[in-house]
TrEMBL record, chain A:
The keyword Disulfide bond does not apply. One of its GO terms (molecular function) is protein phosphatase regulator activity. Gene3D superfamilies: Leucine-rich Repeat Variant. InterPro entries: ARM-like, ARM-type_fold, HEAT, HEAT_type_2, PP2A/SF3B1-like_HEAT, PP2A_Regulatory_Subunit_A. The lineage of its organism: Eukaryota, Viridiplantae, Streptophyta, Embryophyta, Tracheophyta. Belongs to the phosphatase 2A regulatory subunit A family. The keyword Mitochondrion does not apply. Residues 276-351 form the Phosphatase PP2A regulatory subunit A/Splicing factor 3B subunit 1-like HEAT repeat domain. One of its GO terms (cellular component) is cytosol. This is Phosphatase PP2A regulatory subunit A/Splicing factor 3B subunit 1-like HEAT repeat domain-containing protein. HEAT repeats lie at residues 10-48, 164-200, 203-241, 242-280, 281-319, 320-358, 359-397, 398-436, 476-514, 515-553, 554-586.
TrEMBL record, chain B:
Belongs to the phosphatase 2A regulatory subunit B family. SMART domains: WD40. The keyword Repeat applies. This is Serine/threonine-protein phosphatase 2A 55 kDa regulatory subunit B. It comes from Gossypium barbadense.
């Protein structure tokens, strides 16, 4: 047994470890299954490896999951598509395990294999497999079977097709809610493969069953099917069959079902066409915007823009806009926040006049909202409005909102607004920025929270990029450099960090004349942390500045630091020196 | 329903009182043996089929029992039926396996010790012959899978086992950086490692032989950090995908497959904790309607909520409360009104609640008051003062309903438990003791004077070891309380816990 040639040794270990005690090693071997298969050759893979895997299926879920995944791409290793059916038995057992993620992966792999199989093989081995799973004793098998019908159905002969439809209909009425949920989830996929006449009869009756299920959890999955089915049907059939269902759902007793409708409704508008949309879907949507349950209103509010894009502007102004106005003063902050995150997108839909007349007051009131998320969401989408009406109309209200957010007591809010500053700067223009926001940007560099200081340093860099070095020389650099004398060493460190970020943007000249002296000066700092940061910054400046400057200014300073009494300072200084040597060599 | 109920053949009128017999005991104490604290049973639960029974104890262990009589007797029963014999089989269980579900923990942030004691066990949907259950202590819920696993023996390795061990570094190296670049750069092993088209004949797959199997319990998921207070209930939903957990102030909804988030659906915590007047004591989901949830409070009310109405169900759909009888108020009124357990009947129409002195049966269509009230140990009423002083008045007794919904049962002191008939007109009220002889001595005593005289009720007394006997000859021993019991889902069989022993009875 130990007669293994040296080059084969790793493969032999890999094979042995398929059954190692240690799960990590087994997992590793399973992930290398293709290597093992190639070492064994196609025939032995078919005759030995695959049966071996089929028998050893009571392993840990992690291993089974990996196995299900590997088998999905195994066709080349068993000798090509004509042998694909040998892969079905191990995957069939994996379709019945208790762990959902393993089953899902096995179904996915089966679909992948089934899609490549030859028609005859599908009929001879794949379809019987689907039928076995669908008749499985445990619900786990039946759950898995639902996801395979759309692969099995197209190649089945007529009689088998009828049978498959009947089986699916049974699954839709299974005792176990888990099976019905799976049937509901996969109905859209299956329906896409079914011929039009059967679609209208068989599939629709299954759909009706699901929509009337006692379990909320099944009904709400049926909602998802509405949109998928709607797209398959002719507009008039869709209006006749799907529309009443969705209108019903929009008034379902369960808020979870209504929530799903609120999320999906806009997708149906296209399927049913403009007239039913106007007469049925718009009123349904308006109802959802007025729903008692905040969660439903959140979902509905979040889709306002998408819905309006489908409607013509008059309808939107007439029906949706009044609701939007109400939602902007909703009692739930999350509803207002959801609205604020999409409402700016309505401006292009409604056009300039309607935006100024109707939307602007809403923007303004949301900008004054007591809840910071709402304000932030408005600010983050400012560019969309700017395109339609220009920013001037908003700027008056924007400033107080920004200032308030900039000084918010929660550092995450401050962080969020800093990240929008470059966007604001680009939208508002240099003039506005100089007057109002410049001071704020400097203030953040002295924030109590590190993340804010860090973001502020980055912000300074992005502003310099946005407005160019000349502007930055006037409005940023002097102020930043002033702060190097701050008594707090952490703030001095922030400035060093800002300098290292600014230097590449500002270019060689300014770096040499303005930034470098400040850094060199800082090397005399009494705090070692500052000194080794000086070393790091100097290192980052080396590629930017001229060779002569490195020789004359940077290296002497680094040499000095490399003889410092502090070990860390010496370390970083010598590291910087080394990199300067390398630059010189090249 | 088919076993014990055969006696009940009277076409009209209430079913006859059941004649309870001892069936089995697990962990019986020998005389003088001291009970270890960790062995005391703290939870009992039958699974949906009644083929399995689980108990949890204060030591954090879960013990599973399986029914033995169904499998063996199937063939036999047919013979018996042919011979027109009455079937006298009753559920019998045997020890199946046990596992350590919870360990003692320490919450460093709150400086709190977390006991390992199992507060509740709930069975989940069986799949592929594997058993699934949820168990919880005060803070952490765990999802367990118990499954038979083959004991594997591996032979025919490519490498001699000793050699493989000796070169452990090589064996493990296939994990990360293997000696052969072909393995390490998994992207394109073809280039570095070429195999002959027919494969390498010298390689062989390990041969696995396995004869025996053994039961393995694996913790599949841990649902933690969602409760600020102690968890008093967990309950599975009929949708098979969610469950709830309740503590003193909140009820959370979980998906069985998602352990890192839950949704708060009930929150009774007032803005100011000084305004707190009522806490949640027990919660259960409806057996068939996935959207209905009932929870009980320390003030003696039960609230039924509809999860469909709203995401946060702070307002109830129905409130079940018994109007207070005028003039009966005392210092103890509120304390003894506190509900310690609620259960839905199998059909979901009725709910059973247990407060300190009574069992109450409620019709969910009638919120004005209970359909019936059963006095559990009325003779303790004069002793409430003593019970308060030794804290017994805060004991949390569980209650259960029979599968057919005709009877209810609950525990009391001195290891007694009581079974009441709740069918209309029934006067059944039996007292049993958790011992090998449940009906040791029968004393005629009308425990419910309001009922007709025909009621034949029994009261038993403990033997010589009884610690206290009151003037009426009733025994009470506060230290031996029977808190936990469960009724078999399909047959008249009760499992109850007396300290560390599990007693089973049938009728």
């Amino acid at each position: 047994m130990a007669m293994i040639d040296e080059p084969l040794y790793p493969i032999a270990v890999l094979i042995d470890e398929l059954k190692n005690e240690d799960i990590q090693l087994r997992l590793n071997s399973i992930r290398r299954l293709s290597t093992i298969a190639r070492a064994l050759g196609e025939e032995r893979t078919r005759k030995e490896l695959i049966p071996f895997l089929s028998e050893n299926n009571d392993d840990d879920d992690e291993v089974l999951l990996a196995m299900a995944e590997e088998l999905g791409v195994f066709i080349p290793y068993v000798g090509g598509v004509q042998y694909a059916n040998v892969l079905l038995p191990p995957l069939e057992t994996l379709c019945t395990v208790e762990e959902t993620c393993v089953r899902e992966k096995a179904v996915e792999s089966l679909c992948r294999i089934g899609a490549q199989m030859m028609e005859q093989d599908l009929v001879e081995s794949f379809i019987p497999l689907v039928k076995r799973l669908a008749a499985g004793e445990w619900f786990t098998a039946r759950v898995s079977s639902c996801g395979l019908f759309h692969i099995a159905y197209p190649s089945a002969p007529e009689a088998l097709k009828t049978e498959l439809r009947a089986i699916y209909s049974q699954l839709c009425q299974d005792d176990m809610p888990m099976v019905r949920r799976s049937a509901a989830t996969n109905l859209g996929n299956f329906a896409a493969t079914v011929e039009a006449p059967h679609l209208k009869v068989d599939i629709m009756s299954m759909f009706d069953d699901l929509t009337q299920d006692d379990q909320d959890s099944v009904r709400l999955l049926a909602v998802e099917g509405c949109a998928a089915l709607g797209k398959l049907l002719e507009p008039q059939d869709c209006a006749a069959h799907i529309l009443p269902v969705i209108v019903n759902f929009s008034q379902d007793k369960s808020w979870r079902v209504r929530y799903m409708v609120a999320n999906q409704l806009y997708e149906l508008c296209e399927a049913v066409g403009p007239e039913p949309t106007r007469s049925d879907l718009v009123p349904a949507y308006v109802r959802l915007l007025h729903d008692n349950e905040a969660e439903v209103r959140i979902a509905a509010a979040g889709k306002v823009t998408k819905f309006c894009r489908i409607l013509n502007p008059e309808l939107a102004i007439q029906h949706i806009l009044p609701c939007v106005k109400e939602l902007s003063t909703d009692s739930s902050q999350h509803v207002r926040s959801a609205l604020a995150s999409v409402i700016m997108g309505m401006a292009p839909v409604l056009g300039k006049d309607a935006t100024i007349e109707q939307l602007l007051p809403i923007f303004l009131s949301l900008l004054k909202d007591e809840f910071p998320d709402v304000r932030l969401n408005i600010i983050s989408k400012l560019d969309q409005v700017n395109q339609v009406i220009g920013i001037d109309l908003l700027s008056q209200s924007l400033l107080p909102a920004i200032v308030e957010l900039a000084e918010d007591r929660h550092w995450r809010v401050r962080l969020a607004i800093i990240e929008y500053i470059p966007l604001l700067a680009s939208q508002l223009g240099v003039g506005f920025f100089d007057d109002k926001l410049g001071a704020l940007c400097m203030q953040w560099l002295k924030d109590k929270v590190y993340s804010i200081r860090d973001a502020a340093a980055n912000n300074v860099k992005r502003l310099a990029e946005e407005f160019g070095p000349d502007w930055a020389m006037q409005h940023i650099v002097p102020q930043v450099l002033d702060m190097i004398n701050n008594p707090h060493y952490l703030h001095r460190m922030t400035i060093l960090h800002s300098i290292s970020l600014l230097a590449p943007v500002m270019g060689s000249d300014i770096t040499c004349s303005k930034l470098l002296p400040v850094v060199i000066n800082a090397s005399k700092d009494r705090v070692p942390n500052i000194k080794f940061n000086v070393a790091k910054v100097l290192q980052s400046l080396i590629p930017i500045v001229d060779q002569s400057v490195v020789e004359k200014k940077i290296r002497p300073c680094l040499v000095e630091l490399s003889e410092d009494s502090d070990v860390d300072v010496r370390f970083f200084a010598s590291q910087a020196l080394e990199s300067s040597n390398q630059v010189m060599m090249s | 329903m088919n076993g014990g109920d055969e006696v009940v053949t009277a076409p009209a009128g209430p079913p006859q009182p059941l004649d309870w017999k001892f069936s089995q005991v697990f962990g019986e104490r020998t005389a003088g043996e001291e009970v270890q604290e960790v062995d005391i049973i703290s939870a009992i639960e039958f699974d949906k089929t009644g083929d399995h029974l689980a108990t949890g104890d204060r030591g954090g262990r879960v013990v599973l029992f399986e029914r033995t009589d169904t499998k063996d007797h199937d063939a036999l029963r047919r013979d018996l039926e042919r011979m027109d014999h009455p079937i006298n089989r009753h559920p019998e269980f045997r020890y199946k396996t046990e596992f350590q579900s919870h360990e003692p923990e320490f919450d460093y942030l709150k400086s709190l010790e977390i006991e390992e004691k199992i507060n509740k066990i709930r069975w989940c949907q069986t799949a592929n012959g594997a058993l699934f259950l949820l168990s919880t202590n005060d803070k952490t819920i765990k999802f367990w899978k118990v499954q038979e696993k083959k004991v594997k023996k591996i032979s025919e390795m490519n490498l001699d086992p000793p050699k493989a061990v000796g070169n452990g570094c090589v064996a493990s190296s296939s994990n990360s950086n293997s000696p052969t670049p072909g393995l390490a750069n998994g992207g394109s092993p073809d280039n570095d490692f070429s195999f002959p088209p027919g494969g390498l004949p010298s390689l062989r797959l390990p041969v696995v032989t396995s004869q025996e199997t053994n039961l393995v319990a694996r913790c599949r998921r841990v649902y933690a950090h969602a409760h600020d207070y102690h968890i008093n209930s967990i309950s599975n939903n009929s949708d098979g995908e969610t469950f709830i957990s309740a503590d003193d102030l909140r009820i959370n909804l979980w998906n069985l497959e998602i352990s890192n988030q839950s949704f708060n659906i009930v929150d009774v915590k007032p803005a100011n904790m000084e305004d707190l007047t009522e806490v949640i004591t027990s919660a259960e989901l409806h057996p068939t309607h996935c959207n209905m949830l009932a929870y009980s409070s320390s003030k003696g009310s039960i609230r039924l909520i509809d999860l469909r109405q709203s995401a946060l169900c702070d307002s109830h759909a129905k409130l079940f409360e018994e109007p207070e009888a005028p003039g009966s108020r005392s210092f103890f009124t509120e304390i003894i009104a506190s509900i310690s357990d609620i259960k839905f009947a199998k059909d979901g129409r009725y709910m059973l609640s247990r407060d300190y002195m009574t069992l109450k049966l409620w019709d969910i269509n009638m919120d004005s008051g209970p359909v019936s009230t059963f006095q559990v140990h009325e003779y303790l009423r004069p002793k409430l003062c003593d019970l308060y002083e030794n804290d017994s008045i805060f004991d949390k007794f569980e209650c259960c309903l029979s599968g057919d919904g005709l009877r209810v049962a609950t525990g009391s002191y001195s290891n007694l438990f009581r079974v009441f008939g709740c069918a209309p007109g029934s006067t059944e009220a039996t007292t049993l003791e958790a011992s090998k002889n449940p009906v040791r001595r029968q004393v005629q005593m009308p425990s419910r004077p309001s009922r007709s005289l025909s009621s034949i009720t029994r009261v038993v007394r403990r033997g010589a070891e009884t610690s206290g006997v009151d003037a009426n000859g009733n025994s009470f021993d506060f230290t031996t309380k029977l808190l936990h019991l469960a009724w078999h889902p399909t047959e008249n069989s009760i499992a109850c816990a007396a300290a560390n022993s599990l007693y089973m009875y049938y009728a």
